[in-house]
Design a protein that fits this description.
The chain is an alpha+beta fold. It is built from 20 helices and ten strands. Helix content is 51%, strand content 11%. Strands 1-10-9-2-3-6-5-4 form an eight-stranded mixed beta sheet. The chain has a two-stranded antiparallel sheet with strand order 7-8. Strand 5 and strand 6 form a beta hairpin. The longest helix has 16 residues.
């Protein structure tokens, strides 16, 4: 395989870790080349955030050669050909060239090869099937990757439906890569293949779906990509329930206009079609407990703006500033509210520091209540009274309220 061009080496290409790995492989007659995202990003003049290495050596040979060079190895994915070589604390993933023997849409059985074109043929998109020597020699086995990367074309390698059947997650990756790297229009062939096979998306694990969707939601062309997914019927297979791509797109536009720090959880919340679906979606995507609460509360509150600053402070105290900001922005996106009013409310959430409730269990015990469930109930009752009063009561007033509750058997109003 001959290089298609030579590029000027970047600092990361000659860093100690990959240099040591390439030297160890070369000492045994093997070849190592950068592959994937780092090569793609170099071609389109974006930073390389990490780098992977492909090699014609088998995993066992990689371990042998790296060990002989005094390098630590970890068999992180040896069944699929990946060995992590650690150089001075820096990990380098080294993966043997491979071809798929058997696939079921979620996982693959592979066989190792020394054919670079065969390895390229099993990759997802042409712009990810580029290889690079440390000296800058660039290889494009498909003959399409270099031009597609520079033109912002997201095209499957070979037959699009075949690539998707090998791994159904490639449907989401197709849209995610377009949102991050695409120009002009979505590739019509790839789009049709994604639409035809979208009904298989529920086979994917929630973790894999959320990993790709979160990246898509943060990409520069997220709004139009979500609308395209909805238009061709792909979005409805993200989870079992309604998807509101229009509201999510409106939220993204509002965030951009207000220069709001964006978060994938907020954009996900806007994408969920109705409040009743929040729990199921959070479970499907395996969100954390805190994220689940944030999504559910923001969705339930977004259509019912809080009436005054005191109520907003209470909501921020009880549910967190993030959830309140989510609800405010999503509600405004849905109604088309003027951004200036929204900005003023967001300033409150950013600038106001919730106070610390001044009582604790010791205050209850000091009034003769033995430890037990009653302690928590009394403290919660006083805290609710304190919050409803816009946090104006000091510790002395809160103790007096606590004493009144105890005298009244916990029923004071």
């Amino acid at each position: 395989m001959q290089p298609v061009e030579t590029v000027t080496p970047r600092d990361w290409m000659t860093a100690p870790a990959p240099t040591a790995v390439f030297a160890a492989l070369a000492a045994g007659g093997a070849t190592g080349r950068f592959v994937g995202g780092c090569v793609r990003n170099l071609v389109i003049d974006r930073p390389a955030t990490d780098f992977d290495v492909a090699t014609d050596a088998t995993p066992e040979r990689v371990i042998e050669l790296a060990t002989a060079a005094g390098l630590k190895t970890v068999p992180t994915g040896i069944a699929h050909g990946t060995v992590t070589v650690v150089v001075g604390g820096a990990p380098v993933e080294v993966t043997t060239l491979r071809r798929d023997v058997e696939t079921d849409g979620r996982r693959a059985v592979v066989a190792f090869t020394d054919d670079w074109a065969e390895d390229a043929a099993r990759r997802d998109f042409t712009l990810n099937a580029l290889y690079l020597d440390a000296d800058g020699a660039l290889y494009d086995p498909t003959g399409l990757g270099l031009a597609d990367a520079r033109a912002g074309r997201i095209r499957f390698v070979g037959d699009a439906e075949t690539r998707i059947r090998e791994d159904v997650l490639r449907i989401l990756r197709f849209f995610r890569f377009f949102a991050a790297y695409g120009r002009d229009e979505l590739d019509a062939v790839g789009l049709a293949a994604c639409a035809a096979l979208a009904e298989r998306m529920p086979e994917l694990s929630g973790e894999r779906v959320w990993s790709e969707l979160a990246k898509l939601l943060m990409a520069s062309r997220a709004a139009e990509t979500l609308l395209a997914m909805a238009e061709v019927g792909v979005a409805r297979y993200l989870w079992d329930g309604p998807v509101d791509a229009g509201r999510a797109a409106a939220l993204i536009e509002l965030e951009t206009g207000l220069s709001v720090t964006v978060e994938p959880v907020r954009r996900l919340t806007a994408l969920i079609g109705e409040p009743d679906a929040a729990s199921a979606v959070a479970g499907r995507l395996r969100l954390s407990r805190a994220e689940k609460h944030r999504v559910a509360w923001a969705l339930a509150t977004s259509s019912d703006p809080l009436p005054d600053a005191a109520a907003r402070r209470a909501a921020i105290y009880r549910h967190g500033a993030d959830a309140w900001i989510d609800a405010r922005l999503i509600g405004a996106a849905e109604t088309g509210e003027d951004g200036a009013a929204v900005a003023a409310d967001l300033a409150l959430a950013r600038e106001w520091t919730p106070p610390v409730f001044p009582l604790g269990g010791g205050d209850v015990m000091a009034l003769g209540v033995p430890p037990g469930p009653a302690t928590g109930r009394l403290l919660r009752a006083v805290e609710d009274w304190w919050v409803d009063g816009d946090f104006t009561a000091d510790a002395k007033a809160c103790r007096a309220r606590l004493a009144l509750l105890i005298d009244d058997g916990g029923t004071a109003r």
